[in-house]
Amino acid sequence: MSKVRVATAQYPVDFLKGWDHYVDKITSWVKEAAGHDAQLAVFPEYASMELVSLFAEEVRQDLPFQMSEMQRLLDDYLALHRELARQYGMYVVGGSFPVRLPDGSYRNRAYVFSPQGRVDYQEKILMTRFESELWLISYGDQLKVFETPFGAFGINICYDSEFPLLARRQVEAGANLIVAPSCTDSAYGYHRVRIGCQARALENQCYVAHAVLVGEASWSIAIDENCGRAAVYTPVDVGFYEDGIASIGEWNAAQWVYADVDLARSEEVRVRGEVLNFRDWDNQSVAASAEIERVHLE
């Protein structure tokens, strides 16, 4: 089996009334995706940060404080998503969570939950200036590929999608789908990630599922503004889509975006495509490693 229906979220930030409100919200989102026969549901980067609304004002206005307090909710967050994946028989990529390590540093983790109860994660590899300088989140150091009955996928969290070697390693290890959960506070940021996602689909001749956080949260100093459009991107070749877009959401709307993909077709286009970007990757290294000749035209 290589066919899978992917649901990628335009997930809205809310001020939560309590933990039960969060449980009801996440449950309704997963239930809706399952009702549309999705087998893989992807939430965006830092979607978990709406949990900060459960804390007092002094916590919400102190970034180090709120990240520390978030750790008290991690076990419940994991248990909730694990149960929902099991209950609805879906693979779920949860909204990423800033996790404190034993040495006191933080990593931005996107957890993956399987219908069988397995839980693992991909850490963000590269940090934006905001994350490294203000959030003090450390760089991840390991790439993973997640094996499923429908094929393998890798995760590039937001900024990671803008660097080609990360997805390349995962695709070379067997991933035919790259999942890109993102959190961007401006159209500039959104388009950087979108362009990165489409570039990764082009050069690797694979699928990319992009999830986004949307909405305003004036109560938060971390995720106060969020915008974008979730989408599923494809190789740009015969048999796919002329613009490489399988589906894309409405700007800033709260919604799931669905696409039916066949990961085996990614393998086929790498052999029979009009162009063979995946095969020709290494050919660029010859010219790229040669000495540059400076040509003066004046």
TrEMBL record:
InterPro entries: C-N_Hydrolase, C-N_Hydrolase_sf
Keywords: Hydrolase
Keyword check for Ubl conjugation: no
PROSITE patterns: CN_HYDROLASE
Molecular function GO terms recorded: hydrolase activity
CDD domains cross-referenced by the UniProt entry: nitrilase_Rim1_like
All copies of domain CN hydrolase, residue ranges: 4-263
Name of this chain's protein: Amidohydrolase
Organism: Lujinxingia litoralis
